[in-house]
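Worked example

This section walks through a single chain of length 258. The input is the sequence exactly as stored; nothing has been trimmed or padded.
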Amino acid sequence: MGGVLVRRSGSVFLHSQGFALPFLFLMPAASGWALSQKRNHAHLVRLGYALIWGGMLTSITRVTTVICVAQVVLFYLMMRRPEWALGSVVTALAAIALTVVVVPGLVHFIWETLSWQTGSGTSHTRDWVGGALALLEQPWGHGIGTTDAAPLRFLREPLSADNLYLSYGVQLGLAGLLAFMVMLGSILAISWRSVWIAPTESERRFFAVVALTSIGISLNGVTSVVFSSNLLAYVFFLCAGAAMTAAHELRPGSGTKG
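Given that input, the structure is written out below as tokens.
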């Protein structure tokens, strides 16, 4: 980073990207938790929230970090706290400015990232082109286990990588890709709509977390196979299922109360 070697944080079991992906759910959930607990042990809540952000930032995953900041801003806007949203934007800009001053050469690194000149940008482009060609070559799908890391276990070259949509498309064909996009879009649309009609504050926060995680997955899926993180996938789909059930109960004529 800026000509300086940097060790990215991860965990014993996860690489840096796998460590960062669960924050697509954790960050809006932590924001909802911090908002609901503002009167009880406020100092501990702020410390915990800061530690979560610290873990996110030390993973140095650029796309995921930007998405998490956007999630937090959107969350506070959805909860009708525009002053908190503005504060989040100002804090993010201040942190960027401070980092640019402290880390030499960081401006050049940012420019390389934005202009797609880094090694990861080159590898993304190569993988996307390969995946797109594979999808066009066989639009009915190449079968399960032909993309990402799975083929490497059998000493075969993956047909696609670094893109959630191409992963589904190459393996399951255009029909599978369409089904996946409809599923994810439905979760987003229903949970987003339910935020505004939920009768209690806790329900609004829960629907907001599911909606914002859906947005984060949709965006981060362009540069990563997001569901390679089992932790994110399991928690997200569990909460998404609960949100869809709760949203159905909010509909007029459902026969139940929210």
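What to look for: The longest helix spans residues 164-195.
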